[in-house]
Design goal:
The chain has 15 helices and no strands. The radius of gyration is 20 Å and the shape is globular.
């Protein structure tokens, strides 16, 4: 009976993972629930917020150590593929995000529009893009170079696009404070990581599994801090349940449209099948692990919970849909 019980649990776990629900995603959602029920309050607030800011610095320091800019640039020899992916990530997605402003409130709650727009500005994922490309039989080296380049350029392009599209509408804090926060909490740790990469890069690579949990828990702490602030300010009581359903439906439509558009464009440009898979899975992703800390810095003093909620919803929708599509491609190849 015990082996049957554990076997059923493992089967459930495999089902959740195939749908994009791994322990990391579940822990993020658990942090949201804990923040709604037991938000940080009183003397705990400065400690939690300070720890979250420190965690962001650690996270981007590790990014700086892990990302090899010369390798990413060297991998750009397949320039047509990478330029196509970057165009979808930093041109097509932002234009769609701006166009979503025209939707009526009955389709998209105005309080969540800023978060959906920010989602469209975030760079592509790395692990998920590469993983789904590999499962589908796509160009894995091309996916590695494209996803790495997206995150490297996203360090500069995402804040720049956020300033260009969101600062004038009052959705961001004071430009001077936001710029200082970006410099101290994002760029400075990242640059320090790049500087010491030759010294500790091998050590970080050897302990990658353990350090990956450090990065993941940093994001979980950022989520808890942001949603605690929203609960203390009463933000969540102003978000109707229908707005969440709208968000799920819009995210599903957006992922579907981008999966079709990336494939249609890649076929039109006469890419090989393996390259088409890489373009699809790299050009449609938005990185939760990068976007959440960026939002915490860019929108300091604003209701950050409403900014990151659309990104969390979109991230889960994209994982679920892309996992299904990648497995479908794999069965075709088999």
């Amino acid at each position: 009976m015990r082996s049957r019980h554990f076997g059923s649990l493992s089967a459930v776990g495999r089902t959740l993972r195939s749908a994009g629900f791994d322990g990391y995603i579940l822990s993020i959602h658990a942090a949201v629930l804990v923040a709604l029920v037991l938000p940080a309050s009183g003397p705990a607030v400065p400690w939690v917020d300070g720890a979250a800011r420190g965690a962001i610095g650690v996270l981007f320091f590790l990014y700086g150590v892990r990302i090899a800019p010369l390798d990413a640039i060297a991998g750009l020899t397949h320039w047509r593929l990478h330029l196509t992916v970057l165009s979808f990530t930093f041109v097509v997605f932002p234009l769609i995000g701006l166009a979503l402003r025209l939707l009526p409130s009955s389709v998209l709650d105005p309080s969540l529009y800023a978060g959906l727009l920010f989602t469209c500005l975030v760079p592509s994922t790395v692990q998920a893009s590469i993983g789904f490309t590999a499962v589908s039989g796509g160009n894995v080296p091309g996916a590695i170079a494209s996803a790495s380049a997206s995150n490297l350029f996203g360090m500069f392009l995402t804040p720049a696009l956020a300033f260009a599209t969101m600062s004038t509408s009052g959705q961001m804090g004071a430009p001077g404070a936001a710029t200082l926060g970006i410099g101290l909490q994002l760029f400075l740790p990242f640059v320090l990581g790049q500087i010491v990469r030759r010294l500790i890069g091998d050590w970080v690579a050897r302990h990658g599994s353990a350090l990956r949990y450090v990065g993941r828990e940093s994001v979980v702490l950022v989520v808890y801090s942001a949603f605690s602030a929203g609960e203390r300010d009463g933000v969540w009581h102003s978000v109707p349940s229908t707005a969440l359903l709208q968000l799920v439906l819009l995210s599903t439509l957006l992922v579907t449209a981008m999966l079709w558009l990336t494939r249609f464009t890649a076929d039109l440009m006469r890419f090989e099948r393996a390259d088409v898979r890489a373009i699809q899975f790299c050009g449609t992703k938005k990185a939760l692990v990068t976007g959440l800390p960026m939002a915490a810095v860019l929108f300091a003093g604003q209701p950050v919970g409403q900014i990151i909620l659309p990104l969390m919803v979109f991230h889960q929708v994209q994982l679920t849909m892309c996992a299904w599509l990648a497995n479908r491609y794999r069965r075709r190849v088999a």
